[in-house]
Protein: Putative 3-methyladenine DNA glycosylase
Amino acid sequence: MKLPESFYLNSDVVHLSRSLIGKYLFTCIDGVTTGGYIVETEAYNGIIDRASHSFGNKITPRTKTMFMQGGIAYVYLCYGIHEMFNVVTSVEGQPHAILIRAIQPTDGLDEMLYRRNMIKLKPNITSGPGSVAKALGISRNINAVSLQSDVLWIEDRGLSFTDDEIAAVPRVGVDYAGDDALLPYRFYVKGNPYVSKPNK
DNA sequence: GTACGGATGCCCT
DNA sequence: GGGCATCCGTACG
Structure:
């Protein structure tokens, strides 16, 4: 069952980021469904978070998606190469987002292999935010698309992890964020092979 | 108009 | 473990 819109309206983005671990993320593009369950996330806590694009209430053509009501996708380009998929959360005007950094693939393996130009299944197929987006066929043309749509959605299939099984550590690649770079806003399933590189 | 740097991943050693 | 591709978004003038 799809997570309802109300799930995304919670104003505690760090809690939600933890909650998304074990949820199933799917896309359906050209009739092909691909997806798996989320094993790594990062929370970006709105205008007070130096690591967030929306820090300082910065509204630009790119970041305006983050200011919309929760329950939609925020997709942007990083390093000129990689598309990044985020879940926008909280109410309109509060620009919270959760970066999906890794999933364990379960559905549409062949299509994901094709999109990643891979012959054989290896953990790096969906390890790291750029890889997740590419494997799922996510690009900027689904920016601001609703997670209630039939293109992109998240399901709860009853899979859950205990706090002992989940690590909470500082985020990756946000050294520019000063003290905020130290916040334990990155969550991942300990020992899961699909978790992206810095997994110690 | 132009300059600068980034929420990375891949390939090589 | 390190170098580097690659180009948009943003700020500033």
